[in-house]
Amino acid sequence: MRHMAFLRVYVPLEKLHERLHQLARNAAKLSRADIEAEAAERLNQRLQPDSFSLAPRSSDPPIIRVLEAVDLAGKTRQYFHVNYLERAAFESQYMRRKYFDDELYNRLVPPKTLDTLEKISELQADAGLISRPVPNMRMELWQVPLVWLAAFTGDPEDYDYQSTTESIVDGTRVVRRVRDFYVAFHQISWVYRYFDTYGPDPQKHPYRKALVKLDSWMASYNIRRPFEGLLELDYGALTQYAWPDEAGKLLAEGHAAIEEVSQLEDDLENEFLEINDDYGIFPGVPPAMLKRAADTMQAKYQAAARIWERISRYEHAN
Q: Which residue numbers delimit the DUF8083 domain (predicted)?
């Protein structure tokens, strides 16, 4: 399970339940390396052949990751991601269902254990420690969904915050990218809007469907301004295959093509109205231009998807 990627949401201390405040303050005193080493050690212990356990020990405190960002006023702010391992283990069952055959799945994921994990997660939600309807992370095995990469495309805004860090976790090089949550959310919304209008077959396209789901998930956080939260893309051990992120660059080029035709349409419409007053009906951008933009988006999307298809083949060798 080392080759997992994560998309995590970090929020300020005041957005956490009061019972978590002291744990969060304690976590802020640790280095990220220390926190990841603890997470890796817990996972390694559970995966030992003589002590394998799908369920984490309920007595273990949550893993709390901490990020810092300097806002526009020059003030350093701290943001926290609280990861209760029972919830993560419960939510990861779909990965086992996807990658394990029936016999192995039934051995590793007994119904009683799943019921226990679900009940613990519900109790944590009842206590306000985690959010029942909105998980604070996404995780994938042997892939980084292209829609996650979309959140990190686009030109930086004046009020944006972005960082890229590298570290060694359990002997593995790991790259993490961080962006202001508000800006990342608006980037997804913009791509969604452009794709709906100028993308290839938008109502049926898998990329469009993924944009809708991610847009809905991010909207649930009600983060309305910059520096109210951070979004972190953790490539995990997939860093060795996926960095530098060529798939993300290809997507950005596709986004630029449909954004460019949108801007062109606005400019042409303004020129048309100046000549024809407000009574004219703008005929729109020539169909050939629309097709070229849609074809470019599709070609870039397919090229990005092929990169991840190639990377995901390594799962069969592991």
A: 4-260
